[in-house]
Amino acid sequence: MNIIIKTAEQIEGIRQSSKLAGEILVYIADFVKEGVSTGYLDQLIHNYTISHGAIPATLNYSGFPKSCCISPNDVICHGIPSEDVILKKGDILNIDITTILNGYFGDTSKMFIVGEASENAVKLVNATKHCLNLGIQQVRPGNYLGNIGYAISRYAISQGFTVVYEYCGHGVGIEFHEDPQVDHAARKNSGPILKPGMIFTIEPMINEGKPRVKVDETDGWTARTVDNKLSAQFEHTVLVTDTGYEVLTDVSDEYSS
């Protein structure tokens, strides 16, 4: 495992890219409404990213055809935006943004609800957001990386949900995907020790039903729940500081260590 400890210069570059990624999620929120296509949202995100001097990291990444991932309802992750996917009342969807700004990567995602969703959908979204919060609270020098996943999985299960284990968080900043792998279900006090200068994503994917994933054979990307039940995800890029953490993609001052 080759975990990159970022320099002060690299941290600042990643901080700026992460800030832009977070700002894009704020920008797109006003356009997430009934009757809008996910393809339209992707085009808006693409234009905003380019106009701010950045590159959408997903575009042409291993053949991925769009500038972001949009994953509605039973899609766990890697949903491909399309003009054919029209948002309807009650939908829940994840929008996942990764920017490359001056060569540095920032990665974040959040859930949106179209109109009013079912009680259980709202519970799932809120529980997933809390899972992310619990994971972030484990970030501090000297703690074990595995305690992030331990905290996440314990809470998700307590709420009657399951944790996707086939996808995980990851180191980020210099490359799109780096070491370490950040599992969202892990044993207590497992994995490497966290050190200042590490930067990685925490991005729990929580399912209403079974935890397993099936990938659409038609596009090779879209990952769905095996039972077609709902899935939710939130993601931030997090820096390990000398005393705790800094959530680099948080542009709403929601987190303070």
CATH class: Alpha Beta
* CATH T-level topology: Creatine Amidinohydrolase
Number of domains as seen in the coordinates: 1
The helix content, as a percent range, equals 25-40%
Mean pLDDT: 97
Uncertain runs with pLDDT below 50, 5 residues or more?
none
* Level-2 CATH architecture: Alpha-Beta Complex
Termini separation comes to 28 Å
Strand content is 15-25%
Structure in words:
- The chain has 257 residues and is α+β, with helices and mostly antiparallel strands.
- It has a single domain (8-247), classed as Creatine Amidinohydrolase (Alpha-Beta Complex).
- 26% of the residues lie in helices and 25% in strands.
- The chain has four helices and 15 strands.
- The strands form five sheets. Strands 1, 2, 4 and 5 form a four-stranded antiparallel beta sheet that branches. A three-stranded antiparallel beta sheet has the order 3-12-11, with no helix packed on it.
- α1 packs across α2.
Task: Provide a compact summary of the structure.
This protein has 257 residues and is an alpha+beta fold. It has 4 helices and 15 strands.
What features would you highlight for this structure?
single chain; 257 residues; alpha+beta; 4-stranded antiparallel β-sheet; 3-stranded antiparallel β-sheet; Creatine Amidinohydrolase; globular; 25% strand
